[in-house]
Design brief:
Layout lengths: L3 E3 L17 E4 L4 H6 L26 E4 L6 H10 L3 E4 L13 E5 L5 H16 L3 H23 L4 H14 L5 E8 L2 E7 L11 E2 L3 H9 L3 E3 L17 E7 L3 E7 L7 H45 L4 H14 L5 E8 L2 E9 L9 E2 L3 H9 L3 E3 L17 E7 L3 E7 L7 H40 L3 E8 L2 E7 L1 H7 L3 H4 L4 H5 L5 H12 L4 E9 L2 E11 L8 E8 L1 H45 L4 H26 L8 E4 H10 L7 E4 L4 E4 L1 H18 L4 E6 L3 E6 L27 H11 L3 E5 L7 E5 L1
Length: 781
Amino acid sequence: MLPIVMVPVIDTFRQMTPTVPLRVAVADTDSTLSDLLADVSEVDLQVGLPGASAPANGARLPDCLVVTDPNLDPGVVETVKRGRIPVIVVTEMPLSAFIEDEHIAGYVRPGETDADTRSHLLDELRWVTGHETRQQLRESTDRVTALHDATTTLVGATTTDELYRRTVDVANDILEFDICYVGTVEGEKIVPRAVSSDAPERGARTMHIDEGIAGKTYRTGESQLVRRVEEASEVEPARSEYQSGISVAIGDHGVFQAVATEPDMFDEQDLQLTELLIGHVAETLTRLKAEQSIRIRERKITRLHEGVTDLVSARSVEDLFQRTVEVAEGILEFDQSYVFVVEDGEFVTAAGAARDDPVDVGRLQMGRGALGETYRTGESRLTLDIEQDSVAEPVSGVFGSGISVPIDDVGVFQAVARDTRRFDETDLELAELLISHVTATLKRIEAESGLRSERDRLDALFENIPDAAIAFEFEGGQPIVQRVNSAFERVFGYGADEVVGENIDERIVPDGVATEANTFNEGLKSGTSLRAEVRRETADGPRDFLLHVVPISLDETNSGGYAIYTDVTEQKERERQLRRQNERLDEFASIVSHDLRNPLTVADGYLELARETATGGEAELERVADALDRMNALVEDLLTLARKGKVVGETSRIDLDEAAREAWTHLATADATLSVDTGLTLDADEPRLVELLGNLFRNAIEHGEASAVRIEGTAEGFAVEDDGHGIPVAERDEVFETGYTTTTDGTGFGLTIVRQIAEAHGWTVSVGGDDGGGARFEFEV
């Protein structure tokens, strides 16, 4: 329970009897109220306040109770009610906090100075203790009740304009303010939105937020009571006849003002009731603006999603950026917007759109202002006031606020406005939503561009393959043709319009090999590349091909692939002809081996018998022996040509010098010599290399009558030369032909065998040397 001090009030109060002092009980914790009333004369001090029981000894109850806390002890409240003691509350609390307490009769808000508070308190004491107090209190209560009832009208407003109109109507009807208006803040100005019907023309005007009492009310958020305009230096009334007024802030939305043409037309109670009214207005306005913001946001998001359909259909980066600024202007309703891209260390305008008077910003440095900060950090920025922003560096003096959103690592989107505070977090959110679609579309365009380039490259490669090629996909397990190249049309004789969309196996796989084709298809599905010789049907009949089946992805499950057909029909025909020739050679070799060798063996036997029994004719028998030896040599060479020809076996690295020495040991060389020191190794079939060298050595010694044979290394391979008769220049083109010989006992096959062995190894052989000065055989390996 707060201490209570009784202090008499000055005897000049109206309705008071001078001889009967006014008893005032003051309850405060720090004696502030007691000090304010301590110098009031004729004080009848009564210490303490009776509780619920009747006063003892006929003690007189106080005429008024002044407190700083409206929450009184229940016993005090009971005494107040029973004794009908008026209670005045001196507090910063709003009247709405205790308006329902029936025992509260007066309300005083502390002034800027103690003198102001004292004056207001004495006025309130005069009022609540006068004869008309109860009637005035009832009227005041009626006004508060009516004001509360009117809040339903305010809450029922569906638009801000409707709310402003209802506010001035309530002020007219209930608070009985003849001239009042509502002004809202737009940018840097307070603009009238609703004016009472009784206000004279131009009764309210647009003003700057730094101007007059309205500006002070908005900036400080504190209500203003102007009893006399002439005494308030900050007042700048719209009309000179305005003499008093009230100004109350509507949250951070604007200001409510009421004015009168006479001084002292408003008091604390008017201010309190106005604050009560505007409190409801501010709450309703906050709700309406939140709802409106949500509706606008939802509408813009809906329109943005609709616009994204057009946005994502862009097929080039330039088209995408132009559509971006068009969406920002038409759907998000940004007055002016740009897309900047980085080019050669600068920001370059890639696209721009403006509702009116576009500003050309040109090329900008990458590290400059909000643009550079956004690109560097990758974070969006909302700039409410460009001039006041420490980062922003405006390119001209026309822009007041802006939004910056990064476009991946490509550039930055910016929206700007001439006024400050034109954008809010919702605008930034919508801009980020727009740019998220732009970034996704940009990546898609870049990917498609890469795919198009790759597809164009593959198309060109596919078309320029010299062999017949088919691209196909598996549909229902069947290889369905997707496209063919021009080589396919030429080789197979089927046009693209005939085979595209068909099962290629049904068109070109011959009867009886379907299992083979199915094996290829299964391998392709599993990601296996295959190569095989196949026979396929063409429009002109069957042909032979080397088939290369290529999956799209190796070692993975595939839905399609490529088939490349290399026409080997002529090669296969040559192989078949060669096979038939080899078969005939084998047959010939068999005849030579059996049908000629056996008679020669018999002839050798009878020759030997004739030598044993003959008594003369030895010379003739020797000629027969020579003929038989020549025929045996001829048979050996023919068998070599027929059975080996241009065929070599497995090759390995062979030392040329060692092969030459081995070949030399197989010959009757008489007094001839071999010189060899090449140090060369060759990839060769060793027995056939020895045979090649042996034939050259035999040719040099037996037919060229050489006394020395030398092997040397050359830049291209090696050479075999001798000091024999040599080979005439005119005959050098003929020496490798079958049957060429310079002696009567030669077979004419020795050098032919040399050439065939060389060609079987992939070597070339030519004849050189001086005419009549020895022979030289040069091998290029």
